[in-house]
Amino acid sequence: MKVKKTISIMLILSIVFWTLGCEDKDTVSPEIVAITPADGTTSVAKTTEIKVEFNESMDKISCESRFALIIGDLDDMPDDFNDGMHGSFDWNSGQTLMIFHPDSALMDSTMYSICLKEGMEMNEHDGAMMTSGMSSHGSSVTGGVISKFETEK
After folding, report:
1. pLDDT tens sequence across 13-51
2. Confidence bin at 11 (pLDDT 50/70/90)
3. DSSP 120
4. Ramachandran region of residue 127, left (φ > 0), alpha (ψ -120 to 50) or beta?
């Protein structure tokens, strides 16, 4: 009888320790650390590049497809990004910094909106998606963040 009780206790303890050791490591959502130019900045150079820094390594395709630089002072996330400026992307080696280079110089004294839709995915983390932690770097809107800046004269 003592053997059965000892085995039962050992089995229960093993399950408890195994369960504690298997906690979900992907409970942290990716967050935007910084957007450059910062929200509300004025007199931004017309040759500026747009930088979005994350706290986690991100999936390039999911981020680039959910990014747009749009002319105008937007308050609502556009349904599609067809009006977004064309350009190219670069990333740092850790895939935590996305840099957008517009194909042409920005216009004089013009308001631009950096649009970042929800759903950007972390790199190699079971596809955890960015749905929070974005609002401190722009206006939180349904479906993401809009950060605005104005170019120099």
Report:
1. 555 454 455 444 445 678 899 999 999 999 999 999 999
2. low
3. -
4. left
DSSP 122: B
Output the CA–CA distances (angstroms, integers) from residue 124 to 25, 61, 95, in the order listed: 12, 13, 11
First to last CA, the chain: 88
Enter the tokens of residue 28: 């942290």
Q: What is the pTM of this model?
A: 0.75
Structure-block tokens of residue 104: 């042409």
Using CA atoms, how far residue 81 sits from 10, 29, 31, 45, 94, in Å, is 58, 24, 22, 23, 27
Tokens, residue 66: 């959910």
What domains appear along the chain, each with residue ranges and CATH number? 30-151 (2.60.40.3710)
